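tool_log.txt
---
The assistant was asked to compare two proteins side by side. It first ran the structure predictor on the initial sequence, then on the second. Raw inputs and outputs are pasted verbatim so the downstream comparison step can read them without reformatting.
(1)
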Amino acid sequence: MQQLQELGHWAICLFILVYALATVLGIPGTVLTIAGGTVFGLVWGTFWSVIGATLGALGAFWVARYLLRD
């Protein structure tokens, strides 16, 4: 927790990046969502989780569309 406070706003960017990467790789985001709520609070944790999930879904779409096409 102390390390996240030292990161400041970079902690949010790191959380969103990790959440998006987990989504692209097909890793369930339940644990990350709970961690986001614990670290950032209920409202902001939900907001950052939704942003990460949306960016991850967009990334998964791009991977499927451009890298895994026939």
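(2)
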Amino acid sequence: MKKDGNEKEFKRCAEDMLSELGDGILAVFSDGSKADGRVGCGYRCVLDGEVLCEKAVPLSPYGSIYYAELPGVFYAIRWLLSMAGRLVSNGICFRVDNQSVAYALGGGFNTRDPTVTTVVAEAEELKGQLGVGLFPKWIPSHCGLVHNDAVDALATQVTMDDQVGGRTLVINDDLPIPLSDIISTTKVVLKDRHQIVPERAAYL
């Protein structure tokens, strides 16, 4: 198949997936980027076509793309938790273009990795506080989807300069707490939920 044909097929596939989002379903897009010794992530939360929040966050330069994408999901969840009680939705759908991240969010990994266990624990907390279902699904990257391209640009921007880009339309746009700090302060919670005590977050 020609390149143009592949791109059209990818876009059609992604649009079919996104068409599953009904009224009141909050979509979370996230992405990670690594270039020139810098690593960053970005996320965007969208409800009924309105961008509620988007942000870019610089990360430790030692992580892989996989470890860049997971924090993007994490920071989106932290923002959503901060909005508990003010945000009404019929469900939350995580749309990621990394199949491993989608698999991890769906509980497909049995791992002691502190980054994965922390993100999964936060997702469970979000599910409990908002009382809605969480639906992680993979979408193809670089196929013309506006929100996916936007978070890719946010993550890429972090690797190009020293400024943290982003805008928050609902709450103050403060720099999120480093994920490594969150891990160190939630060991007891993780131990209770998963019987796992993460030793360190090597890539964050």
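---
observation on (2): DSSP finds seven helices and six strands in the chain. The domain at 3-194 is CATH 3.30.420.10 (Nucleotidyltransferase; domain 5).
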